[in-house]
Write a structure and sequence with these properties.
By secondary structure, this protein is an alpha/beta fold. It folds into two domains: about 130 residues, NAD(P)-binding Rossmann-like Domain (Rossmann fold, 3-Layer(aba) Sandwich), CATH 3.40.50.720; about 180 residues, Dihydrodipicolinate Reductase, domain 2. It has eight helices and 13 strands. Helix 3 crosses helix 5. The radius of gyration is 20 Å and the shape is globular. The protein binds NADP nicotinamide-adenine-dinucleotide phosphate. The site of NADP nicotinamide-adenine-dinucleotide phosphate has 30 residues, from helix 1 and helix 8.
């Protein structure tokens, strides 16, 4: 049976990748409706066919089965209910609904059962959280995790097309970032919070607890933006509940769906942004015992923020709905 699909934000970095992933995975698209501001691109291509891109009009919301939203936080708040009313399940990439207890937040390899709770809207988690949790989940299942200390090294594409232009055009003064991003590191992502953390760092804590349905797990994140185009890397140190053998850790991570252990530092084998760019899998290297904690474990995780961190995860959620 064919599926009527809408993409709101179809011309963005994530929206265009959703189109590519739907095509690659042979998602049974019967009809495609694409939306953006109307001021930018007027069409996109899907399977060689030219598809018009239109501005959204509340009075002309089409009847669809699945509507992907990747157009910032405000647009889904305004329009997602209209799509639901007209038959769609909305899969939203933004933070708009992620903390709403009534709305499932899904990583298909981790909590697919949450799909049953969906009443029209499903939230796609934050990119760094998805990438971090994929390899941590098999460790969590077998040994338990008490604490996560994470430092992210996030690419510029994670902030959208305008941000990427700051880097590509070496814009100075920059348009999107507070400082020039080329040859620089900005040790702050999202809004500053009273706690001293940023909104991005808060997302990694709150969303980890929601996805794992575990409010006891402690997460401390520091998020930084680097002059890298695609791919987020995360240095993670964990305190596990139980002692472990490092080979067993490797084995559990290796056999988990969607994760690749790529770990031979003596011959330069570890994942980095240019290596993982445009790959769906999350890669892990530098797996080692950490001496700071009892049952301490450290690793280096890398994944493509536009693929598994956004588009691929969203399309996998749509596949669960099928
Ligand atoms: N980039 C990532 O790594 C990543 C990862 C996870 C989640 N996300 C989330 O995904 C969403 C999109 O991110 P992105 O990186 O793809 O951003 P982007 O490249 O800046 O694209 C934004 C898209 O939203 C559209 N848009 C903006 N205002 C609109 C409006 N009023 N009506 C209709 N469409 C509108 C834009 O259309 P025009 O082209 O016409 O301007 C464009 O298609 C964001 O909510 C972001 O938080 C991004």
């Amino acid at each position: 049976m064919g599926v009527r699909v809408a993409i709101v934000g179809a011309t963005g970095i994530v929206g265009e990748k959703i189109l590519a992933v739907l095509d690659e995975r042979n998602f049974p698209v019967e009809k495609l409706f694409l939306f953006a501001t109307g001021a930018g691109k007027t069409h996109e291509y899907f399977k060689g066919e030219k598809i018009p891109v239109n501005p959204i009009d509340k009075t002309k919301i089409p009847e669809t089965d699945i509507a992907f939203f990747s157009a910032g936080t405000e647009i889904p708040k305004i329009y997602s209910k209209d799509f639901v009313k007209n038959g769609a399940v909305v899969i939203d990439n933004s933070p708009a609904f992620r903390e709403d207890e009534a709305i499932p937040l899904i990583v298909p390899e981790i909590n697919p059962e949450q799909i049953k709770k969906a009443k029209g809207i499903i939230a796609n988690p934050n990119c760094s959280t998805i990438i971090m949790l994929l390899p941590l989940y098999p460790v969590y299942l077998r040994w338990g995790i008490k604490k996560i200390i994470a430092s992210t090294y996030q690419s510029v594409s994670g902030a959208g097309r305008e941000a990427l232009l700051d880097l590509d055009k070496k814009r100075n003064p920059p348009y999107f970032f507070p400082f020039e991003i080329d040859k620089n590191i900005i040790p702050h992502i999202g809004k500053p919070l009273e706690s001293g953390f940023s909104s991005e760092e808060r997302k990694m804590r709150i969303e980890t607890q929601k996805i794992l349905s575990d409010k006891t797990i402690k997460v401390s994140a520091t998020c930084a933006r680097l002059p890298v185009r695609f791919g987020h890397c995360i240095s993670v140190t964990l305190k596990l509940k139980h002692n472990f053998n490092i080979d067993d850790i490797r084995g559990e991570i290796e056999s988990f769906t969607g994760v690749v252990v790529y770990d031979k530092p003596d011959c330069g084998k570890y994942p980095y942004p240019l290596f993982i760019e445009d790959k769906d899998e999350v890669y892990v290297g530098r797996i080692r015992i950490d001496p700071v904690f009892k049952n301490g474990l450290s690793m280096w995780i890398a994944g493509d923020n536009i693929r598994k961190g956004a588009a691929t995860n969203a399309v996998q959620i749509a596949e669960l709905l099928l």
